Amino acid sequence: MGSYAFQKKQMAPVLKQSFVAGLVALAGWGGISFFWHGSDILRPAALGLALAWGISTVSFLILSPLVGFPMKNFFLAWLGGIIARFFALGVLMVAAWRWAPSSQAALLLSYAFGVIASLLMESRAVVRSEALG
Fold first, then answer.
1. For residue 131, how many other CB atoms are within 10 A of its CB?
2. CA–CA separation, 129 vs 133, rounded Å?
């Protein structure tokens, strides 16, 4: 059984996952800025990727201490992270309601792809930390 106290050894995987997710977000934004030079989509794309990265980092920070606990506790925390991602998507959709269609698409697609990438990395990190004990 684990402990709810966040131990120092649990911080390393969180920092590593956050760093890698940040690099993926920067690479995604770099790809967007390379292929689409229009400044009307660069700022919304950066906002969507940054929000996906932030939510992923907070979610993994919450999940890390729960790896050794019963599955019910872990999955409740995981479900909380998924709900937070859907809530952020709703907030982005409302915030971008009157934006130009290209800016809306850049914001929502960058957020969606950022969430997908971060979920894959988060799942990998959780499985590795479970396997390593």
1. 8
2. 6
